[in-house]
Design brief:
This protein is of the alpha/beta class and 255 residues long. It is 37% helix and 15% strand. A six-stranded mixed sheet has the order 3-2-4-1-5-6, sandwiched between helices. Helix 2 packs across helix 3 and helix 6 crosses helix 7. The N and C termini lie far apart (47 Å).
Length: 255
């Protein structure tokens, strides 16, 4: 099943390359939120209303200043509808002259829903479902619905399908818009996407075509940059490529 999906994705992806344009995607994990400070012992899930901590706001400003120093400007910006992601996007974008109403907020970029696991004690809950977790890995779906937004539990695979679906649809839409515009810009179109840790990990797993347990072996720091680029070359180097992962060098100065 896994190999069949991989082959089908390759064939479908190659067939679309002639219709697409080169686009860079900057996937940015949100800054530290209040719920992050509880993640050591609680399963936090989406927690869509949790705000940034003071440290998180400082992290977002540090990233914004870094982007300004590097003269990196986004041609389009998207954010998950979670408060911690949209607030991060707004703080960062004010440093690169992008207004809040230019940030498009979409549910497709939300974090994995932990269903009834949301806000449960981490260790005893995972111990109870240890056998299922080991057997199903990225396909394990937490039972029930989350108490905060009444969403059904999602597997990592569900999130991967959701995220890659959004990115591929966006790539098609942007490619069409670029073709129809009169822009003479030579550099790839740049898109900033403010989202969440597990969401970004599933994208990396999908692009690298790694094994089902690989996503959880990645470490992503708050406000880190994961850069992807879509190349239209038809050869082996074409399609989705990972340029960098978990770049948080702007945080090396203590805050």
């Amino acid at each position: 099943f896994f190999l069949i999906r991989k082959f089908q994705r390759r064939v479908q992806g190659r067939s679309k390359r002639t219709e697409r344009k080169n686009v860079k995607f900057y996937l940015i994990r949100h800054a530290e939120s209040e719920m992050n400070t509880k993640a050591a012992h609680l399963i936090t899930g989406r927690s869509n209303t949790t705000p940034l901590t003071t440290k998180g706001m400082q992290q977002a400003h540090m990233l914004g200043r870094r982007l300004r120093r590097n003269q990196l400007h986004f041609d389009a910006v998207y954010s998950s509808t979670a408060v911690r992601a949209s607030t991060t996007a707004e703080i960062v974008c004010q440093h690169i002259d992008i207004l809040p109403d230019q940030i498009q907020k979409v549910d497709a970029l939300l974090e994995l829903s932990q269903g009834a696991f949301t806000l449960a004690e981490r260790t005893p809950t995972y111990e109870t479902f240890k056998e299922e977790l080991e057997q199903e890995q990225m396909f394990f779906r937490p039972p029930g619905v989350s108490p905060d937004d009444q969403q059904n539990g999602e597997s990592q695979h569900d999130v991967e399908v959701r995220m890659m679906g959004f990115l591929n649809h966006l790539l098609d839409d942007l490619s069409t818009a670029i073709k129809q515009s009169s822009s003479s810009k030579d550099e790839p179109f740049c898109v900033g996407i403010f989202t969440h840790g597990v969401a970004i990990k599933t994208v990396i797993r999908s692009v690298l075509e790694c094994g089902p347990s690989s996503a959880m072996k990645l470490e992503l720091t708050n406000t880190s940059i994961t850069e992807l680029e879509y190349f239209t070359d038809f050869g082996a180097l074409g399609g989705w490529n990972v340029i960098r992962v978990n770049d948080a060098s702007h945080l090396e100065t203590s805050i």
